[in-house]
Amino acid sequence: MKEGKDMSFMGHIGELRGHLIRCLIAIIIGGFVVGFNIEWIMDQVFFGPVRNDFPTFKVLNSLSQRLTGSDAIDLPKDFPVRVQKLYQQFNVMMSVSFLGGVVLAFPYIVWELWRFISPALRPQEKNNSLVMINSVWILFLIGILCGYYLILPFAINFAVLFKISDIIEPLYDLSDYTALFFQIVLGMGIVFLFPIIVYFLTTIGILTPKFLKTYRRHAIVLIMVIAAVITPADVISMMMAAIPLLILFEFSIGLSSRTYKRIQKENHAVSRATE
Questions:
Q1: What residues contact 217, with CB distance under 8 A and at least 6 apart?
Q2: Start-to-end Cα distance in the chain
Q3: Element at 173 (helix H, strand E)
Q4: What is the C-alpha separation between 220 and 239, in angstroms, rounded?
Q5: How far apart are CA 73 and CA 88, in angstroms?
Q6: What are phi and psi of 208, to 5 degrees?
Q7: % of the chain at pLDDT higher than 70
Q8: Per-residue pLDDT tens digits for 78-124
Q9: How many CA atoms lie within 13 A of 177 on its CB side?
Q10: Distance of CA 137 to the CA centre of its chain
Q11: What is the dihedral of CA 187, 193, 197, 202, to 10 degrees?
C-alpha cells in the first residue's frame, strides 16, 4: 500500500478490497484442502474426542492408572450418529470446509491486515504492531487447541455418560454435534484474543491496568458467564473453560500494565522534548 497521506479515500477502499479478495482466496484454498480430505478430518479430527484413544483421555487415564489402578474415563465403543435430512451431510461438509478454511487461512488473513495498516504507522509502531499481529493468530490457534483438547473431550464425556434411564438408546444428531464442536473450539479461539483487545484499548487510552485490577471480581463473574455460554450445561466443562480464561485475564492485566508504563514513558519523553 502506498503512503496513507498520498492516497485518497477511494484509493484506500480500493487497496482494502484487494486485501479482502486475497483473504477470500486464501479461505477458499483452505476450504478446498479441508474438503478434499474431509473423510480423514471427520474420522480422525472431528470425531476424535468421542474415542478412548484421544490424547486427552489417554493422558488422564494414564495418571488415573498410577493413582487408583483404573481408568478415569471409559467411553462406549460406539458413537452412533444419525442424519435426519437429505442434505445434512453435505451441509456439514460445507460448514466444516469453510470454517476449516478460515482457521487454516487465519495467519495469512492477519498478515494481510497488517500489510494494509502498516504503511500508516511510524517505525516504532510498526515494530510493536508486528509483535501484536503475530500474537493474534498465535493466541487464536492456542485457544482452538485449548478448546479441542481440554474442553470438548470433557463436554462429550459428560454428555455420553450421563443417563436418566437405561431404556433410552443414544442416537446422536450430526448437526447437533457439529454445532457443539464449533461452539467450543472456535469460541475459545475467539475468546483467547482478549489480550489483544486489552492491548489496543490501553494503547488508545481507554483502558488502564488500575481499572482491570479494581474490577477483577466483576471480571471473574463475567468470565464464568462466558465459560457457561461457550460450553454446555455441565459444570466440569465450564470450569475447564474458565480456568484458562482466568489465567488469560491475569496475563492481560500484566500486558496492560506494561503497555501503560511504556506509553507514559513515551509521553513524558515527548513533553520534555517540547519544553
A1: none
A2: 36
A3: strand 172-173
A4: 12
A5: 31
A6: -130, 155
A7: 90
A8: 888 988 888 999 999 999 999 999 999 999 999 988 888 777 667 66
A9: 24
A10: 9
A11: 140
pLDDT of residue 3: 46
Cell of 132: 501484536
- Residue 72, pLDDT > 80, answer yes
Which SS3 state, helix, strand or coil, does residue 268 take? helix
**Residue 22 CB coordination number (10 Å):** 16
C-alpha cell at 219: 471480571
Beta carbons within 8 Å of 144's beta carbon, 6+ residues apart:
103, 185, 186, 188, 189
Using CA atoms, how far apart are residues 265 and 261, in angstroms rounded to an integer?
6
pLDDT band (50, 70, 90) for residue 36: very high
Q: CB of 161 within 8 A of CB of 72? A: no
Sign of CA dihedral 255, 258, 262, 264: positive
Q: Supply 37's cell numbers.
A: 480430505
Beta bridge partners of 182: none
**How would you class 160 by CB atoms within 10 Å of its CB: exposed for 0-12, middle for 13-18, buried for 19 or more?**
middle
CA distance 188 to 208: 25
Cβ neighbours for 103, distance < 8 A, ≥ 6 positions apart: 30, 141, 144, 186, 189
What DSSP string runs through 143-166? HHHHIIIIIHHHHHHHHHH--S-T
What are the tens digits of pLDDT across the range 235-273? 888 888 899 999 999 999 998 998 888 888 877 776 776
**Polymer length of the chain:** 275
> For the whole model, what pTM was predicted?
0.85
d(CA 16, CA 38): 32
